[in-house]
Predict the structure.
Amino acid sequence: MKNVLHGRCTGCGKTHAAVPALYTCPACGGIIDIEYDYDYIKSGIAREPFAARTEFSMWRYREFLPVEEGSPRPRLRVGASPLYSAEALGKAIGLPRLYLKDDGLNPTSSLKDRASALAVVKAKEGGFSRIACSSTGNAASSLAGNCAAEGMETVIFVPRRAPQGKVAQLSIFGALVISVDGNYEDTYRLSAEAIEKWGWYNRNAAINPYLVEGKKTVALEIGEQLGFRSPDWVSISVGDGCSIAGVWKGFSDLSRAGLLDRMPRLLGVQASGCCPISTAFTTGEPVARAAENTFADSIAVGVPRNPGKALHAMRASNGAAVSVSDGEIMEAMRLMGRFAGVFAEPAAAASLAGLKKAAAEGIISPGASAVCIVTGNGLKDVQSGIAAAGEGVLALPPDMKELERALAGRCIC
Ligand SMILES: *Cc1c(COP(=O)(O)O)cnc(C)c1O
């Protein structure tokens, strides 16, 4: 990998060779960050500018990705998700210059595909044939799908509460699914022990430093889609904290390669029923264990595994953290559907609810441009969608008279 220098420990600062199975720091157990040779990256982009490229997937940004040049690209098309200008929705939340980055349109319908695609390549480079992870649901279904397409096996640990849509994906993709009778923390611990015992490739996001590198491609795309002019704010929901860390890494990579005019401010959004990271951001206290009390299952992470990188992303960008109630998330699901035609799962709508709150509280000014990252599709969790939408269906017999009666007084003609 000519573009990669090494992995550096964010704790003790030691550097380590960037081999596929480099996880946490062998010296101190700290989280590793992959460091690049930006001169090498710049020379690649100078030879072939992005505008001239015909690859429409996350691999469009190959100079920025820590994979061997000869490694085959995975088959599933991951990335290249649309960035919509969403003025009507923006007006509804008090930020008319709003964009939606719909990452629910990835192959398994979440942003996690970006990380899983990278994990699959690294596992192959390392000669592994089986990959494991613990997950609230989306990391699991994305790993299972991306592995199925490459003929690799997966062992998946999910908490019992994982929504049916995500569990259905796991089974359809042929994963070995271990549904743990416990919360996400219990699930995580069991997976860590099993991975240690059986030596599978580890796709746990905070442990494996390559996953943030996959997730960062969402920011590289936003940068290019906006003509390499940074938005004022980017909002994303936060569970373990790896996604927001990836967003920060992507924008800083663009900036360090001389492609971006300035850095955006990052808004990290948590559910108020489980907000250890936003609480730590606001109080300045260390991150404390929290209950997992929200229907936004993908961000119900009581013991986050990557709070350091997440807090750094918010602080270094002069950003902010907010937490939103389940009621506010449901409202955001309705608004996004009604005004933008995008169906988000609860954790994905939380980023919109957070923008609305940040605008109302004066953290973000009404004239600011903001990108809301939609991290997962609402069809993964239909039950929550129905709960958020409420009534609204007219149930009628097949009878014109009944229809006329039911529509009387409604302005439809
Ligand atoms: C995983 C996930 C998040 C949060 O990402 P973290 O890396 O855990 O902070 C947000 N939304 C959805 C839909 C997710 O699947």
